[in-house]
Specification:
Blueprint: H1 9-19, E1 38-42, E2 45-48, E3 53-56, H2 59-62, H3 71-84, H4 94-106, E4 111-117, H5 120-138, E5 146-150, H6 159-164, H7 168-171, E6 181-184, H8 194-204, E7 209-214, H9 230-241, E8 244-248, E9 272-275, E10 287-292, H10 293-297, H11 319-334, H12 337-354, E11 360-366, E12 369-374, H13 384-396, E13 399-400, E14 402-404, E15 414-417, H14 425-442
Parallel strand pairs: 3-13, 5-6, 5-7, 7-8, 8-9
Antiparallel strand pairs: 1-2, 2-3, 4-10, 9-10, 11-12, 12-15, 14-15
Helix pairs in contact: 3-11, 4-11, 8-9, 12-14, 13-14
The protein binds pyridoxal-5'-phosphate (PLP).
């Protein structure tokens, strides 16, 4: 739409209702006014077609890390489009090469090699395939294909990534899923830590296990921060049994939790890291599977040995998306936004924890990755009607959050937050204030 063209909002709403299939939503009974028509955004705020402005405490969908309306990224995309809008990764593209080198500097350890894709799901799909091929080529005579993942974890919507995902609602209608995925409980206090994982590997047979995949902090499953010994324990177990540690940093990467990557809180370096979302702050789609030198070396061989990685993606490494990511990372590092995530994240966590209400079961999180879990006054699961009214009240108070349901029995709903990492304390106050208002509304 050109800026001179007036927006016929009602027509757009009708077109949407008639033709757009929205994610995770029941369309029966849906009306034209149920969803917002977001038409513009700046900083931490988005504006709808009626001119109402909201504080986007979800940063799109956990991804607009540097905030909206960054002219630098827009200019970089424009320039790259004019120069070379597209060429595939079958040859060298300047932005992809530069981005890979920049990422090699930013990622911990020797995660120096990047297979570019378009989304977090594809990044995890790639990591699963890398782990299976690596397992077979480095352990001849064994068949290492099993991938261990956790209940409540989320890794994407494609069949492999969904098979690693541990949320029943997102899986059950699409079974049978990919064979060879073993799911374990996420850590709960001291339970289900590295010892449990080791026992599962022993039971499955170490010579059948290719990798463990985990989010450093489970995001969509309700923002679950593990105990401090958990990730180091997983690292040790992977080393002991010769399997790969894949860390899914799709949400936790690029400053979200107060460090550049979630794993840095615990000094753990994975063999494979998957990234997406914050790498380009959503200005254009981009994901990648990063591997260590050890893993990359396992794919080297003679031309006729068949050791190369047999995967191609038409749009993976798209020059324009890589140009957007480079400009995004320039902003993120220049403004040291992970520091703001830590400071304002601590502040917001404190403000939310200060709210006294029997309806709050728990407030948790790290950096600007936060969640408020609600309950009825008697500690039972908050009923659907109250949950719906709470969500509407938050929105009426001008704040957008995520809402997770059906991720764990007896644990819903969880209202999740991941505001742009430029959030200021007064904006954090606005978020906490909206929670107070919405709680009053359903009390
Ligand atoms: C931890 C994690 N991994 C992977 C994905 C999948 O990413 P995408 O939606 O870009 O495919 C998501 C999406 O929310 C995620 O939260």
């Amino acid at each position: 739409m050109s800026s001179s063209e007036a927006l016929d909002v009602d027509r757009v709403r009708t077109q949407d209702l008639d033709h757009v299939w929205h994610p995770m939503m029941q369309h029966q009974g849906m009306t034209k006014d149920d969803l917002l028509v977001i038409v513009s955004a700046d900083g931490c705020e988005v504006t709808d077609a009626d001119g109402k402005t909201y504080l986007d405490a979800y940063a799109g969908i956990w991804n607009v890390n540097v905030g909206y309306g960054r002219q630098e990224i827009i200019d970089a995309v424009h320039e790259q489009m004019r120069e070379l809008a597209f060429y595939p990764q079958t040859q060298i593209s300047v932005p992809a090469a530069r981005l890979a080198a920049r990422l090699a500097d930013l990622l911990p350890g020797d995660l120096n090699h990047f297979f570019f894709v378009n989304s977090g799901s594809e990044a995890n799909e790639t990591a699963i395939k890398v782990a299976r091929q690596y397992g077979r080529s480095t352990h001849p005579g064994e068949n290492r294909y099993k991938i261990i993942s956790r209940h409540q974890g989320y890794h994407g919507f494609t069949m492999g990534a969904m098979s690693a995902t541990g949320q029943t609602l997102r899986r059950s209608q699409y079974e049978p899923l990919v064979p060879g995925f073993i799911r374990i409980e996420p850590p709960q206090g001291d339970a289900y830590g590295a010892d449990t994982v080791a026992k599962v590997i022993e039971r499955e047979g170490p010579d059948t296990v290719a990798a463990i995949i985990a989010e450093p902090i489970i995001g969509g499953g309700g923002v679950l921060v593990p105990p401090d010994d958990y990730l180091p324990g997983l690292r040790e177990v992977c080393d002991r049994y010769g399997c790969l540690l894949i860390l899914d940093e799709v949400i936790t990467g690029f400053g979200r939790t107060g460090k550049m990557f979630g794993c840095e809180h615990w000094g753990v370096v994975p063999d494979v890291m998957t990234i997406a979302k914050g790498v380009s702050s959503g200005y254009l789609p981009l994901g990648a599977c990063a591997v260590s030198e050890k893993v990359f070396d396992a794919f080297k061989g003679e031309a006729d040995e068949g050791k190369e990685f047999s995967q191609v993606s038409t749009y993976g490494g798209h020059p324009t998306c890589c140009a957007a990511a480079l400009a995004n990372l320039e902003i993120l590092t220049r403004e040291r936004l992970w520091e703001n995530s830590e400071q304002v994240g601590d502040y917001l966590l404190g403000r939310l924890r200060d709210i006294e209400s029997p309806l709050i079961k728990e407030v948790r999180g790290k950096g600007l990755m936060l969640a408020v879990e609600l309950q009825n006054e008697d500690g039972t699961e908050l009923d659907g009607d109250r949950t719906g009214r709470f969500g509407k009240a938050l929105r009426a108070a001008g704040v957008i959050t995520g809402k997770m349901s059906h991720v764990r029995e007896g644990s819903e709903p969880v209202f999740t937050m991941s505001p742009p990492m430029i959030l200021k304390e007064e904006q954090a106050d606005r978020i906490a204030g909206a929670f107070v208002t919405a709680l009053r509304e359903i009390s």
